[in-house]
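Allow me, if you will, to draw on your knowledge of protein folds for a short while. The matter concerns a single protein, recorded as an amino acid sequence and a row of backbone structure tokens. Could you please explain, in whatever detail you think fit, how the structure tokens follow from the sequence? I remain grateful for any guidance, and I place the record below:

…
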Amino acid sequence: MLLLLSSSNCTITISTDTATCEMTNDNITFRFTGIAQYDEVYQALLKHQVIFIRGGNIGPKQHLEFAESFGELDDPHPHYPHVEGHENIVLLANDANTPPDTNSWHTDLTFKTIQPFASILIARHVPASGGDTMWSSCYAAYNRLSTGMKNDLENRQAVHDLGDFRNTFATEQNGKSGIERLNHNVPRFGHNIRPLIGTHPVTGRKFLNFNEAFVSHIVGLTTNESNALRTFLANHMNKPEDQVRWRWSVGDLAMWDNRVTMHYALADYLPQYRCMNRITIVDDRRAKE
């Protein structure tokens, strides 16, 4: 079903009930003029988990203003660089000399004490081919679980840590061994323990709270048992029926509810250059109202 939600400056086009909502901006300067329009975007985000604004072409200042309308911004990323002069905007710039490390299914920063509410990503430079991003619905993954598996997972918890970032620190660099660098950075990233079955704080819907990149262990199981369950969950969640794939153009913006989605940035464009800017929002301001 196709649903159009119109306002003075934008049209929201909703094309599927799983996880996609496209907004086409009628104003090249991408200017929302009232709180009601931000509320409209927020409601679309809650319903569809991922929204896209094609050709917004906004600069860093507008990117920050848009993000701040939804909540407090996250601290600078513990690993990635930031856009010059804007420490809250993560710079994701990759080519053959700086290959990406986001080509795995993950939910952003689940190892942090407070899991971020949302992220807003803008394409600054896109390759001629490749470089798409995919998102997957954790609501849909939960709904597809059998009743028995839902019951088995209901009270289980998982350990989240730096996960795939270990690869970055496990090699010698600047005179420090991989061991030294790991021992320094593992505490810096930190750990968290989260339930495998989560409940969205606003919608009240249950979701499968797992991502293969940052979940390192299932509490209460042996390593062998934990690995088996993690493999099952990773395979279960990797279903095209639960996913949306976005082909980027320069200036496109994607915003997703980081509590109930995973995403995967395809690394199929090397040696071409790809540059993205991301802002992460820590708290959901409207959830507190």
Observations:
- Residues 223-237 form the longest helix (15 residues).
- Residues 1-20, 22-30 have pLDDT under 50 and may be disordered.
- The domain at 3-137+244-288 is CATH 3.60.130.10 (Double-stranded beta-helix).
- The first strand starts at residue 3 and ends at 6.
